[in-house]
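Can't paste images in this forum, so I'm doing it all in text. The chain is below; anyone willing to post the predicted structure tokens underneath?
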Amino acid sequence: MSTIAASDVAALRKQTGAGMMDCKNALTEASGDMDKAVEILRVKMGNKLGKLSGREAAEGTIQSYIHANGKVGVLVEVDCNTDFVAKNDEFIAFAREVAMHIAATPQTEYVSPDDVPQEARDAESRVFAQQAADKPENIRPKIVEGMLNKWLGEIALLPQVHVNGDKHDNKTIDQLRADLSAKTGENVVIRRFVRFAVGA
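Text version of the structure:
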């Protein structure tokens, strides 16, 4: 049986976030083949991938999208756990797809509904309450809640279905992010973005 180098175990741990013993066992099972060991760990980790959200996403990429007319541009930062994944073509392509979506949705201001300030929520709720004033009193709170959730879905990125729905199976940005997280075994975080528009 081949001896597994400690440096290989450390490299696999950095790439996957799995424990040292899990990495060593996977490498042993894969006869030292790094790619095969990653595959073995993915199968074994399964639903543990959901626990990756606790890991710090300190690596990542900044990608841009400039619309063909040159009048709209977006910069987006997407983070992950390792430099290895940050340089991955699929990870970079995801960041670019997110930037393109933001360029096409000028109403998007925040990454997550959780990022929307309470003052802004309260102000919108007051407007929606006035709009629902002619409805029966017992159903007004539900109407306001529904209108507020719809509004949050329009101004926050994660709940939005990607503008290129056919290409992405009508998945939301958050679903695409979660798919990439499961595939890479890392905590994928859309950190921030800025949208530029001529004259805006």
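The chain has three domains: 6-54, 59-111+156-197, 117-155. Helices lie at 6-16, 20-29, 34-45, 83-86, 89-104, 118-131, 140-155, 173-184.
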